[in-house]
Structures are given as C-alpha cells and as structure tokens.
Write a structure and sequence with these properties.
By secondary structure, this protein is α/β, with parallel strands linked by helices. It has helices at residues 23-26, 40-49, 59-63, 80-89, 104-117, 131-141, 175-178, 182-198, 289-299, 309-322, 324-327, and strands spanning 5-10, 30-36, 54-56, 70-73, 94-96, 121-123, 148-156, 201-209, 220-227, 232-238, 247-254, 257-261, 267-272, 275-280. It folds into 2 domains: 5-125 and 287-305, 3-Layer(aba) Sandwich (Rossmann fold); 131-282, Dihydrodipicolinate Reductase, domain 2, CATH 3.30.360.10. The strands form 2 sheets. Strands 8-9-10-7-11-12-13-14 form an 8-stranded mixed β-sheet. It has a 6-stranded parallel β-sheet with strand order 3-2-1-4-5-6, with helices on both faces.
Length: 328
C-alpha cells in the first residue's frame, strides 16, 4: 500500500484556488501532482502558479495517469457522476465536491459504483471537519443547552449576493448544470451539518418556487426535517431579499438554552440562564484542509470515511424533497 496520496484535480477552477487546492499538498502524506481543465491556458497557468508538475485538458488522461492514485472532482455537478464512475472503474479513490451530484438517482449510482469497484468514495461536505462545527457538535452532545427541541435556519441573500462564487457562465443558477440554483450550491453544507449534529432523518418535505425570475432556477426554498431523535428542523432559503435583510443564521433551541451560529462565518453564541456569550473560531486558511486530512487518512487505511456516499445520498434525498415541486 502506498504511504502518500498523490492527487489529481479534475476541474481546477476558482473554488480550488484557496479553499481546497493548496490543502492537498499541505496535508500530511498528501501531494497534488496533476490538474485538469478544458481550457489549456488556464490549466497550465494554474499548474505553474501552484507548482503542480502535470496538467491536462482531458479528464480521462488525468484519471489514467499511473502516478495519480486519487482523484478530486471539483467540476460543476453535471459531471460528478461521469468522472466518479470513470475514476472508480480505474481503481482510483474519489473525493467529490458537494453537492454530490445532480439528484438522488445519480448519487445512488455513484454509491453502487463504489461498491462494485472495491475502492473508496468520500463526499466533500467539509464543514463537518472544521473546528467551529466540531465544537458546536460537542456542545450539543454534552447537552450544554439541555435536550434539543428544534432548529431554525435562515439563509437570506439579495439577488446580487457576494456570498456566491461568480463564474463566467453563472452555472450555479442553471439547473441543467447544477441540479438547481443557489440553494443547491449552499444548502448541501447546511443540511449535512444537521445530519452531522442530529443523526438520521425520519421524514422531510418542502416547497420551492422561482419568484424573481432572474434565472431558470428556483430562488425560494423552504423545508422541514423530523429527525429520528425527535428534533424538528425548519429552514428557509431566499435569494431575492433586500440587501439589509441579508441573514445567515442557525438557532438550535434546547430545553435549557440556545446555540446560534452562522454557517458561512466564524462565530457562535450560547444563551443560557439569562446570559449570552459569543465565541469566535476562525477557519483555517484553506477551509477544506482539515477534511482533506481526514480523507487522506481514510484513503491510507488510517481512519473512517469522514463523509461516506450514503450520507451524500441522504443530503440529495432531502434536497430533492424540498424542491419536489420543480421535479414534476
């Protein structure tokens, strides 16, 4: 067995510049040795700037490079299944970006391919590897706010939000490429954290609608989840509010207090016995690096899968149920 994971990235776009790319070389027993992008000039430029020795314009060539022994798929969701299946068939373990893929059926096929290939697949729900959310889970498990009763989530953004990574073709709001809209880009993090905190979901449903008509995707989504432990979650995602209404807030209400935090920030607060304390837990420079380290350890046989495909499927099922109105 190898003692170093030598990564190849398929889709070295903006998200890999700081959030993930450098983390593959900074993690222990890990090295980024190849990148792929269809645009040759951009692929070569990325490789030179990040000191990556190989670059490709064809995904199959990268997958089948004998020196590459693991694949990170960072393309838009439309290509996740295709490249995952090809990499697994080639015997290369895969770390695939969120959302796992376009829909539940596609996610199930990816999980089945992992089993058939006898190799490994991890979904990049990387916020579960960050110190902030590990701390919040510890507080929940320690019953600092007593028994959790319910959770409210609000993700409200104006039409021109600076929270969303901009691209030339704006693929994130093209359902044919992303599976949905900005909900599909952001909600995988949030829903996965709920599963990370509270375990298995028992029932879920929701509604979605396109109110602003700025693009083909729905811009308002609401959903509820009843967990097996009887915790009830309610979430609202709206991407057409006034700028002054911008909100990123999760409130976990317990029998003895409340934990509040922002999914895309660095703070949390605990309110109990009439007192409220605010804490900050800064993220690492490369936000995916803690998760990448867990994935490397897993691929090397030194740990459990930090986010197996079964949990990626569950996130896709919940998202599909929230957006069921658009699936008909």
């Amino acid at each position: 067995m190898t003692n170093t994971i030598k990564w190849g990235i398929i889709g070295c776009g903006d998200v890999t510049e700081v959030k993930s790319g450098p983390g593959f070389s900074k993690a222990e027993n890990s090295e980024l040795i190849a990148v792929m992008r269809r645009n040759a000039a951009k692929a070569e430029d990325y490789a030179q700037r990040h000191k990556v020795k190989k670059w490709f314009t064809n995904a199959s060539e990268l997958i089948n490079d004998p020196e590459v022994n693991a694949i990170y798929i960072a393309t838009p969701p439309l290509n996740h299944e295709e490249y995952t299946l090809e990499a697994l068939k080639a015997g290369k373990p895969v770390y695939v970006e969120k959302p796992m893929t376009m829909n539940t059926e596609s996610a199930i096929r990816m999980a089945e391919a992992e089993k058939a290939s006898n190799t490994l697949l991890t979904v990049a729900h990387y916020r579960r590897g960050l110190p902030l959310f590990i701390k919040i889970k510890e507080l929940i498990d320690a019953r600092v706010i007593g028994e959790v009763r319910f959770v409210n989530l609000k993700m409200l953004q104006p039409h021109q939000s600076d929270l969303i990574t901009k691209t030339e073709d704006n693929w994130r709001v093209n359902p044919q490429v992303s599976g949905g809209g900005l909900f599909h880009d952001l909600a995988p993090h949030q829903i996965d954290l709920m599963l990370f905190f509270f375990g298995k979901a028992k029932r879920y449903h929701g509604f979605s609608v396109n109110q602003g008509n700025y693009y083909p995707a729905d811009d308002l989504v609401t959903g509820e989840i009843l967990f097996e432990n009887k915790v009830l979650f309610n979430g609202t995602w709206c991407f057409t509010v006034a700028p002054e209404e911008k909100t990123d807030l999760v409130e976990i209400v317990g029998s003895e207090g409340k934990i509040s935090f922002a999914v895309f920030d660095k703070y949390y607060t605990v309110r109990k016995n009439g007192k409220e304390e605010r804490f900050e837990v800064p993220p690492p420079q490369h936000i995916q690096q803690p998760m990448i380290q867990l994935v490397v350890n897993y691929f090397l046989g030194h740990g459990e899968n930090p986010c197996p495909p079964t949990e990626g499927i569950e996130v896709m099922k919940i998202m599909d149920s929230f957006c069921e109105i658009t699936q008909k």
